[in-house]
């Protein structure tokens, strides 16, 4: 732990921690999508891929973000050690071949060391890309070969096989839902993740036009009293099949690790636009939120100007926006101009949304500095989701504040029991007492298990600390303490 603390202090000593008054929201989810295409290198070199992952995570942390969605399943293949699906071909050039490193474990370790939450990003129903031909034989065998009867069909009964794009498993087949749930729970049990993020949790694009899914199993279930006891329409029945899966996987995750957050990327419009979640791909994310099966959703509002504002307004009219974190098309910013992205950030905040997500990590390579200097200027905690679970958070003990140099203040405290499970907020103020949190400046959020901080300042402040558990619930804020002046020595040399 000493080594961790020393290294981290070094990082802090070179990090700018100024906080402006133009945006002081203390609860805001700030996330990026890190896709498999962002971190897989063409030469399959593990060290190069590790370097790419680490750089994205460092940039996210330095930009005061707090969540990364890390893609670990693309086409029923795995970028982690899976019990059910083969290692991805993208890692080695051969489907099922062990790359001899674990991208997910590497990303978890790095993210947690830096103080970021890591949510695994799952492509839910896509199973393969048609242009890649059939999967090769592997161990475990690819699900497209093992169960060709699970592939979604068009209204004429033909297997889904567009010239480009995803081939998908049919959400209307119970065994499909069960298989994907097993895949997800395998990850939840094996890895120290903070969330599960579902993408493509819907019927395929152009489902309405081609009749996806009209596979034999789904049609038989739809036309039976057992499979359709409410005598739903074909469209409502498909929506209900997605809803059933969401409930199944949500209940499974929460029963095992209740602190793991559950989210989904959804179509940018609910009903109003021509391309919308409800009518075109049979997603009903409003029901998922209302039934408490998702902690939050991420509408992919990849639009500009008026269409973007219309989409944002639609979500705002439908539901409390606390559980909606709009997705932003950073990949379009070079085409649109970065001012468009800045305007969209402001519009999201003005309308009360408690989070925002950037797609994708590689699109931000040129503007990390602009983000931290102009749009993400203060630290912020991830919104808290109670979930009806006992989330008691311990208080701070042995809180010490010392000025160790003319421009350095050292803050230390004791870790509580199971201290590696907790984050810590560092506050400061010019006031000798505070009446509410608005009187305080949040200057840093430590990674889990770190019990010290060095503030680079010559100014005189009072300091306070609070504890955050894995639900992001915050303890009471400690009493303010003014630094005690001690002999000016190098803290790093002392350690």
Please describe what this structure looks like.
- The protein is α/β, with parallel strands linked by helices and 495 residues long.
- The chain has 2 domains: 349 residues, TIM Barrel; 98 residues, Immunoglobulins (Immunoglobulin-like, Sandwich), CATH 2.60.40.
- A hairpin with a 2-residue loop joins strand 11 and strand 12.
- The longest helix is centred in the middle third of the chain and has 23 residues.
- The N and C termini lie close together (12 Å).
Overall shape:
globular
> What is the mean predicted local confidence, pLDDT?
90
Q: Count up the domains.
A: 2
DSSP summary, beta strand count: 17
Q: What name does the CATH topology of the largest domain carry? A: TIM Barrel
CATH class of the largest domain: Alpha Beta
Report the biggest beta sheet as strand number plus sense, adding barrel if it closes. Answer: 8 strands, parallel
Proportion in helices: 25-40%
- CATH second-level architecture of the largest domain: Alpha-Beta Barrel
Enumerate how many helices there are, as a single number. Answer: 17
Q: What portion of the residues fall into strands of 2 or more residues?
A: 15-25%
If strands are numbered along the chain, what order do they take across the biggest sheet?
8-7-6-3-2-1-10-9
Backbone CA Rg: 24 Å
